[in-house]
């Protein structure tokens, strides 16, 4: 890695690393994730490595991103946890506007998440969305952030390839995406069996997933155009939301 600093970290970089995720910035851990961030539309402000890496250095220089090298012990002390991934980056969170994107893109496949509490589940759903050809993920307020370190890791770099948006609730998403057929998920007897659900590949669809503990709220269910259920045995009450998302996104996806 050339054009890198091996001296003390710039105070601004040290301060941002110490704060971790904020409303404006987040940390990206690991070589593959940092490379994906540098190659994406996200703004990467700094890269910090515990060892030289020519590919990361070249990618950072191409984006005029400063690179600093520090020892693993110093990195762990600053971050507050053992850091073994070799490289991390500080990136700015996305500020995409759903109303503008919806007009410009006319997406066919979307996922809406209502207050998922576990950032690992959020990241896994984003990864599944990328795997099955979905165009974007929309999150309601009150849930885990997709820019949480655990969510970023669970997304396996998909956070840099699938746009994410924030809205207050499904009603707001429907205002900006009036052509989308929103498909809720629920185990009630009124829901339609997934295996019997007809899928028109030309229709824009949105899969709506609820929180781990309570599923979709009654208000959100009432806003869905259709409601489906995944058949499961009576040995469990429900599927983990990330597992359910894989089944549903495979069934309705474009991949």
Give the uncertain stretches in residue-range form: none
CATH class of the largest domain: Alpha Beta
Strand order across the largest sheet: 8-7-6-11-9-12-10
Shape: elongated
The appropriate CATH architecture of the largest domain is: 3-Layer(aba) Sandwich
List the total number of helices. 10
Helix amount, in percent? 25-40%
Give me the CATH fold name of the largest domain. Alpha/beta knot
Q: Structural class, judged by helices and strands?
A: alpha/beta
Mean pLDDT: 89
CATH superfamily of the largest domain: SPOUT methyltransferase, trefoil knot domain
Largest sheet: 7 strands, parallel
Roughly how many Å apart are the termini? 37 Å
Number of strands: 12
Can you walk me through this structure?
- The protein is α/β, with parallel strands linked by helices.
- The chain has two domains: 89 residues, 60s Ribosomal Protein L30, Chain: A (2-Layer Sandwich); 155 residues, Alpha/beta knot (3-Layer(aba) Sandwich), CATH 3.40.1280.10.
- Helix content is 34%, strand content 20%.
- A seven-stranded parallel β-sheet has the order 8-7-6-11-9-12-10, sandwiched between helices. It has a five-stranded mixed β-sheet with strand order 1-4-3-5-2, sandwiched between helices.
- Helix 3 links the parallel strand 3 and strand 4.
- Helix 2 packs parallel to helix 3 and helix 6 runs parallel beside helix 10.
- The longest helix is centred in the middle third of the chain and has 13 residues.
- The mean pLDDT is 89.
């Amino acid at each position: 890695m050339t054009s890198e600093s091996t001296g003390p970290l710039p105070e601004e970089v040290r301060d941002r690393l110490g704060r971790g995720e904020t409303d404006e910035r987040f940390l990206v851990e690991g070589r593959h994730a940092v490379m994906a961030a540098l190659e994406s539309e996200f703004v990467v402000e700094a890269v910090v490595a515990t060892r030289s890496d020519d590919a990361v250095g070249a990618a950072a220089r191409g984006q005029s991103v400063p690179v600093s090298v520090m020892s693993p012990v110093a990195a762990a002390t600053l971050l507050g946890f053992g850091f073994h991934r070799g490289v991390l980056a500080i990136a700015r969170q996305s500020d995409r506007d759903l109303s503008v994107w919806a007009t410009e893109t006319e997406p066919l496949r979307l996922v809406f998440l209502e207050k998922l509490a576990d950032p690992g589940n959020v990241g896994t759903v984003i990864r599944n969305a990328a795997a099955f050809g979905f165009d974007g993920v929309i999150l309601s307020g009150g849930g885990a952030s997709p820019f949480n370190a655990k969510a970023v890791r669970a997304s396996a770099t998909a956070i840099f390839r699938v746009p994410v948006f924030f809205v207050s609730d499904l009603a707001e998403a429907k205002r900006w995406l009036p052509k989308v057929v929103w498909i809720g998920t629920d185990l009630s007897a009124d829901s339609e069996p997934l295996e019997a659900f007809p899928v028109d590949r030309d229709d824009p669809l949105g899969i709506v997933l609820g929180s781990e503990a309570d599923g979709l709220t009654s208000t959100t269910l009432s806003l869905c155009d259709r409601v489906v259920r995944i058949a499961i045995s009576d040995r469990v009450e429900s599927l983990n939301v990330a597992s359910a998302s894989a089944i549903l996104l495979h069934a309705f996806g474009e991949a």
